[in-house]
Each structure stands twice: as C-alpha cells, then as structure tokens.
Design goal:
By secondary structure, the protein is of the alpha/beta class. It is 25% helix and 24% strand. The structure holds zinc ion (2 copies).
Length: 254
Amino acid sequence: MKVVILGSSNADVASRQYVSSYLINGNVAIDAGCLGYHGTPHEQEAVRHVFLTHAHADHTASLPFFVENVWTPTPDCPVIYGNEATLASVRRCIFNDEVWPDFVALSERMPPFLRLQVLCPEVPCDAGGLTVTPVMVNHLVPTFGYVVREGASAVIFGGDSGPTSRLWEVAHQTPGLKAVFLEASFPNRLRGVAQASIHLTPEMFGEEAAKIPPEVRIIAIHMKVRYRDEILRELHDLRLPLLEIGECEREYEF
Ligand SMILES: [Zn+2]
Ligand SMILES: [Zn+2]
C-alpha cells in the first residue's frame, strides 16, 4: 500500500502540513483538506473514494474544488464517505447553495458530481481494492479514525483525536498493522488549548503511543505549523523507538 501525505504549502512542502489529506494508491483519499488543490484534474479524477474523518475545515476545505475538478458528464462520480454527522455538516455548511452550489441536489438532475455514503462505526467498507474500517475517536465533533487494509498490510489514520481507547483496542486486533498516523497538534505548553480543542500534545502523544502495539511505526502528523519546531523537539524527547515525523509528498510504502 502506497500512502502520500499531500502537501499544502508552496514552500518547505515536506514540513508544512497546513491542512490534512492522505492519498492511498493514487485512488483513495482520507480527508480533503488539500485534495482538490493537488496535481492535475486528471490525477484528481483517479480518486474515486474520499473518506472524511470529520467535517472541520482543515479536513474538508478543498472538497468543493475536488468535486468540481473531477466532474465529467458521465454517470460516474466520486463517493464521499463519513459518519452521519460529518456528511450532514458537509451538506449543511458547504453544499448549501450559499458557500458552494448544492452539488448533492444537482447530482439528482444531471450527471452526478458526488455521492454521499454514510458509514457505521466498525463496519468495514470495500473501496478501490482496500478495506476501510471506521472507528470512533475522541474529538469536538463525531470523528472517525480509519483502519485501512490492503492484503496482509494495514495502517491506521488516527484522525483528529484527544486521548482515546477503542481505536487502540482495534489496533491490537489488527493483523499486519504496519503504521499509525497519529496527530501531535500543539506543544506541551499549550496543553490547555489541546484539551479545549480535543487534540494531543507530545506528552499526550506519548501516552497514546504506549497504547499502540510496540512493533508498529508511529508517524506524527497534524502538527500546527507555527509550533512545529517546538513540537518536534518534544516528540524527540519521548525517545520512542519507532517514531517518525510525517513528511508531505514522500511516498510511504507498507
Ligand atoms: Zn478537527
Ligand atoms: Zn484537523
């Protein structure tokens, strides 16, 4: 399985993840923070399945443009997956004929732009040769982490989440788990902000890492760019043997 953390900056692209999107095997995406700003329309058109963790803007900002870029006058369209609350927010706050045309309603009257597919927690979904299983995590709004499997290998995208438990129980029951993409949003001195917004600091990241099976790579993501250097120092101080710092536009293979 090939995973790319999509870049969202025109400078220091590897290290500035302003918003979140992950591309798997070129045809499945997790989140759409910058998916619609990435590559050519034809490259975007290869993405047929988009799994949203939640509706926050850093995970959905480019969804309107992705849907526009990939549209063709055929019956084919991308499928946007998420929990019920996420997809309701997407309809109410984005495709509402104010912020952006109601492409959901338009899709009933003309060649479709998108199809929304509600997922239930822990019910696996086959998409683009992958099996994707959503698991509820702990954030300000109902949020999914995703277990993504291709053949014998699996990876976990932890979504935005504060301290959580069910996802790590599932991790221990996931054969062939190779890596977890785990957020580290704020430095330790901003623990109060992290707790108020239900995110992790490096200290809290270390507590989550202890719940993950020990042979699994842990790839740190979702560092608020302004505090990145401080967060990286604090992550390195954890001395986790399999810790990696996520690099945008690098191809990870699992
Ligand atoms: Zn969020
Ligand atoms: Zn976020």
